[in-house]
Amino acid sequence: MSISDVLTVIQNSVVAHAISKSDHLVGAALQVVHVIGFILLLAALVLMSLRLLGVILKHQPVADVIADASRLLWIGLALAVVSGTLMFVSSPKLYFYKFAFELKMLLFVVAVLVQFTVFRKVAKAESPSPAFVRATVALSLVTWFGIGLAGRMIGFT
Amino acid sequence: MKYRMSSLLALAERIEQTSLGTAIAESSLAFPIIEGIHLIGLSVAVGLLFFTDLRLMGVLFKKIPLTDVLHQLRPWMLGGFIAIFISGGLLFLAEATVLVSSPAFAFKLVFLALAGINALYFEFVIARRPEVKENRAVLPSSVRYAGFASLTLWTLVIISGRLIPYLPAWS
What we know:
The structure holds 2 protein chains of 2 kinds.
Chain A: H1 3-11, H2 14-20, H3 24-52, H4 62-90, H5 92-96, H6 99-124, H7 130-154
Helix pairs in contact in A: 2-4, 3-4, 3-7, 6-7
Chain B: H1 2-16, H2 19-26, H3 30-56, H4 66-94, H5 96-100, H6 103-124, H7 130-133, H8 141-162
């Protein structure tokens, strides 16, 4: 089965039909949820990054800041992934062959890997080296912001 | 009303025809990149503001003193707001006629104004009360209401902003 066949199967699925045949405001609602989820995720990430770099809330333990910000990060990620998946499923062939979409998905895989490996390590380390913290935070912010930019390009290419 | 709308549209047309307006509208890269900057600025400014609001409401960061959250996040939020206003202004130049005739954009401006009034009231009235300045354990309930109002109004700003391309123009 080729990728094109898989996309056709997805496009003909019950969920895909339900979304694409519904009112266009359902699609708009998915876009709204997607952007709100992404904003929560990025804000949580920026807050954690600023704390890890020692720029803000220096007198608070890193663990306290990370714990509360993580809750919002996961809520945001869940909202963005669920709404994004539904949008993709409704018209997979529209998205799959777009360069901006492919770039976004590639960056997404990298960002999630960074989050689960080095970022988590930095957040839990007793006293990580400043260079390691800076490199990790920079990598994480660049990939997640890149996802935002690539995502914005999808509708225009 | 009809006359006012048409003169507003005429003004919007002139704005779009400025060299900067047409340059952005005609570039296939500039428009989405500016929108991307608008989105990133939004996540820094409004996103960090959401955290502040949740702290005001007593939902998150309860262990961190309120004044620490307010003061230390402020410069980052202001930086984000500058990015949003500049990128938003450029986007307006490029599609002024569409935005002027969009009900979603009008609602966005109304919610934005209300959010601004709420922020000013918080800054100049609520935040100056001794209970807030001294980080007392029990804060006036107006603190929670202001946080909730800000969270709601900014969510409405984002929703109406994202709906601009999806809702039909004023008839």
